[in-house]
Write a structure and sequence with these properties.
Blueprint (H helix, E strand, L loop, with lengths): L1 H14 L5 H37 L8 H4 L8 H7 L2 H32 L6 H8 L1 H4 L2 H11 L6 H8 L15 H26 L3 H9 L4 H12 L1 H15 L4 H6 L11 H11 L3 H30 L1
Helix pairs in contact: 2-16, 4-16, 5-10, 5-13, 5-15, 10-13, 13-16, 15-16
C-alpha cells in the first residue's frame, strides 16, 4: 500500500522540478540558428562564394584556356597595375561619376516634384500615377532599344518632331562624343523617375497634416512650408532613395549597351561596361575582375553609409 502511494509522489516531484536554465537557453539558441541558417547558407553560396572567387581571380592569370586546363597561376598585382595604368579606366571612372550624379539629381528632383504634385487630391490622380510607373515596369533593355530608335539621328522620332517645329532635326544624340553621355543620362533619368516618385510619395503620406494646417494658419508661403516641413520630415526617406539609387545606378550595364555599347569613341564607357568589355569581349577575366571589385568596393562604402544613416535616424 505504501509502495503504490510513494511512486506517484516521486513522479510528481520529478515533474515539478523547474527546467534547467542552461538547457532552455541552448534550445532557444539552436532554434534561432535554425531560422537563420537558410539565409546564411543562401548568402554564402550565392553572394559570399562569387565575391571571394572574384577577388581571387583578380590576382590570377585567368584566360579562356583556364576553362579547359583548370590552370590559373597567380600573377600578383599585375592585373591591378594593368587596369590602373589603362587610360580607358580613368575615362570610365569619370564617366561613371558624371552618369551617377547626373542621374541621381535628375531622378530625385523630378520624382520629388511629381510626388508633391500627386500628394494633392484631384480627378484621375491614381490613373496618372499608374501611367507614370510604366517606365519602371518595362525591362531596361527594352527601354534602351526603344530609346535608341527614338534618338536615332536620321530616322528617330525626336529629331523628326524637332524638325517639324523648326528647332533642327539632325541632332546626333547617340553618335556625338559630346551628346552621347548626356543622352544616356536623360534616358536613365526617365527610367528612374517612377522609383523616386513612389518612395517619396509614400513618405509624404506619413507627414502629419496638422503641420501643414498650422503653417497655413501662420501664413507661411508654399516654399517656406516645403522647406521647413516637407523636406525635414522626408529626410529619412530621401536618404534611402539616394543611397539605393546610387547603388543601382553606379553599376548599370544593360541600358548603356543597348543605347551606345560604350561608344562613340568610348565616350559612354563606365566601370560597368568596362567590366563587360574586359571579361567578355577581350576575354581578360583578371582585368574584368579588378574593375568588378572596384565597383563592389564603391557599393559597399555607400551601403555602410546607408546603414549608419538609418541607425542615426532610428535613434
Amino acid at each position: 500500500m505504501s509502495t503504490t502511494t510513494a511512486a506517484p509522489a516521486l513522479v510528481t516531484a520529478k515533474t515539478a522540478q523547474p527546467p534547467n536554465p542552461a538547457r532552455v537557453r541552448r534550445r532557444r539558441r539552436l532554434a534561432q540558428w535554425g531560422f537563420i541558417a537558410p539565409a546564411v547558407i543562401f548568402m554564402a553560396l550565392f553572394f559570399g562564394y562569387p565575391l571571394v572567387r572574384n577577388i581571387v581571380m583578380s590576382f590570377q592569370d585567368y584566360a579562356p584556356s583556364t576553362f579547359f586546363t583548370g590552370e590559373s597561376p597567380f600573377n600578383g598585382t599585375d592585373n591591378w597595375s594593368k587596369v590602373f595604368n589603362d587610360e580607358l579606366f580613368g575615362k570610365a571612372l569619370v564617366h561613371t561619376v558624371l552618369f551617377t550624379i547626373g542621374s541621381l539629381i535628375g531622378q530625385f528632383c523630378v520624382g520629388l516634384g511629381l510626388a508633391v504634385f500627386f500628394n494633392r487630391r484631384f480627378p484621375l490622380n491614381g490613373v496618372l500615377r499608374s501611367l507614370i510607373l510604366l517606365p519602371w515596369l518595362v525591362p531596361m533593355v527594352v527601354s534602351g532599344v526603344v530609346w535608341r530608335r527614338i534618338l536615332d539621328q536620321d530616322t528617330g522620332v525626336l529629331n523628326s518632331f524637332l524638325g517639324t517645329l523648326g528647332l533642327g532635326g539632325d541632332t546626333p544624340w547617340l553618335t556625338s562624343t559630346s551628346m552621347a553621355l548626356i543622352s544616356v543620362i536623360l534616358v536613365n533619368i526617365w527610367i528612374g523617375i517612377p522609383f523616386n516618385m513612389v518612395i517619396l510619395y509614400g513618405g509624404l503620406q506619413e507627414v502629419p497634416k496638422e503641420l501643414y494646417e498650422a503653417a497655413s494658419l501662420d501664413g507661411a508661403s508654399a516654399w517656406r512650408t516645403f522647406r521647413s516641413i516637407t523636406l525635414p520630415m522626408l529626410r529619412p526617406v530621401i536618404t534611402v532613395v539616394l543611397v539605393l539609387g546610387f547603388m543601382s545606378t553606379v553599376k548599370i550595364l544593360d541600358l548603356i549597351l543597348a543605347l551606345t555599347d560604350g561608344g562613340p569613341a568610348d565616350s559612354t564607357q563606365t566601370l560597368g561596361t568596362l567590366t563587360y568589355q574586359n571579361s567578355f569581349v577581350q576575354l581578360d577575366f583578371g582585368a574584368g575582375a579588378v574593375v568588378g571589385n572596384i565597383l563592389i568596393l564603391i557599393s559597399a562604402v555607400f551601403a555602410v553609409f546607408y546603414l549608419r544613416a538609418n541607425r542615426n535616424e532610428g535613434k
